[in-house]
Amino acid sequence: MDLTKKFNKQVGKIAVSMIRQFDEQVTGIDNIIKLTLGEPDFNTPEHIKMAAHDAINQNFSHYSGMSGLTDVREAATFFMKEKYGVSYQPTSEVLVTVGATEAISASLLSILEPGDKVLMPAPIYPGYEPVITLAQAEPIYIDTTSNDFVLTPEMIETAMVEHGDQVKAIILNYPSNPTGVTYNREEVKAIAEVLKNYPIFVISDEIYSELTYEDQHVSIAEFIPEQTILINGLSKSHAMTGWRIGFIFGPQNLIAEIIKVHQYLVTAASTISQKAAVRALIEGMNDAAVMKEEYRERRDFVYEQMTALGFEVARPNGAFYIFAKIPVGFEQDSMKFCVDLAQRQAVAIIPGVAFGKEAEGYVRISYAADFSILKEAMKRIKNYIETNEVRTAAFSSEK
């Protein structure tokens, strides 16, 4: 009896993330250096861990309310006001979620219906499309590769004219995974000026907001709060990926609908993690600063190394990724390139195709790794580039 044939047909249209698949594929290679996953290599700050320890001892081991503990919602709205100048009511305009991933799912499943279209700049993090597919909606990709991965108001306007009333939402992710691109105040305002002319949701995934290198991060919610479903969390800013704390901020009328889906997905976030989050958001408000400076040094090092080897790289100004064009003369199938690199030099980076067809021919490097590891990885990539002449013919013969 094969019950898989009775699954929701939409499930058959999605797959496990190619990032995770590739990471597992190369795990067994001897002495492998993995610059694959988007996870800080720093540990959670000690004062945050102690807050969780105290919460356990004080028996915070029961459900919180669906929206999250009052003190963490107050802390989250305080943080957003102090850092980015956006104001939300803690009692009605914020939800505590199980990481930004659940925030994305709850938001998309709340607003999408069959036949809806969702605009997304490409390349883009691959965690959005599967949820859109499950909702029987359609992703519409706006190719930004010709503009150093920068989404412009003109690109949005063109997409809106082409797809019209079918567009239900646009997803923004900045600083961007995988490119590291982000936007200054003028650029964010210009995008908002276009979007305010259309009755669509703006789902703004700003999980890397604290890792902005040159300018202060600017949230689009500052300009169009009534349209914006703002997503953030503590995974990247406070090295708390395993604690699974995210947030959805938005107008009361939108949050009142999203909470219905959120509740049936997860009930509520971990109470222990929420108590730790209070400490992170208040006493640890600037915890990311030290990590950011380290990331900046790593970015500069990897950027210089990769460009010297012939990779084209749009210099990232946020997050912790280098998104590089494979040099001419090497296999442009990014999966084959990355597999060959892993097998020959024991260094793993993510194929660009994991971020959409627009990203084919690129690779993503996560520099969330110790400097000594990055130096060795760059040495191995240099060996690969310098000791392998044009390999296109060799790859073709292996097909």
TrEMBL record:
UniProt-listed SUPFAM superfamilies: PLP-dependent transferases (SSF53383)
Family to which this protein belongs: Belongs to the class-I pyridoxal-phosphate-dependent aminotransferase family.
Pfam families reported in the protein's UniProt record: Aminotran_1_2
Family annotation (InterPro entries): Aminotransferase_I/II_large (IPR004839), AspAT/PAT-like (IPR050596), NHTrfase_class1_PyrdxlP-BS (IPR004838), PyrdxlP-dep_Trfase (IPR015424), PyrdxlP-dep_Trfase_major (IPR015421), PyrdxlP-dep_Trfase_small (IPR015422)
Keywords: Aminotransferase, Pyridoxal phosphate, Transferase
Protein name per UniProt: Aminotransferase
An example Gene Ontology molecular-function term: transaminase activity
